[in-house]
Amino acid sequence: MEEKEDEDILRYFKLRIQHVVVPKDGVKDPTNTNEICGICLGKFKHEETIGTLGCEHEYHACCIKKWLLRKKNCPICRTSVSPFPSTKTVQMHSN
Ligand SMILES: [Zn+2]
Ligand SMILES: [Zn+2]
To answer: CB–CB of 51/65 below 8 Å?
Structure first.
């Protein structure tokens, strides 16, 4: 099933929601424009879902998802991407 494969891809990056803070005076800070998706080269927009790889490079979740289906490395630094360990480890198993 394709859905199962898609779920597996989600383990290769962490998800977060982008929050863009727009200054009240509308002055754009040119030094604050480094949050760009290295795959589609589009800027991260407010409340977009961002996927962070283990090398800490960030992409749109939809972009990195498509990329990882083909290649298991970072588009920018070429670091091979491995899935994050499962968070379902049982720590309070006292039985
Ligand atoms: Zn993108
Ligand atoms: Zn990277």
So the answer is: yes
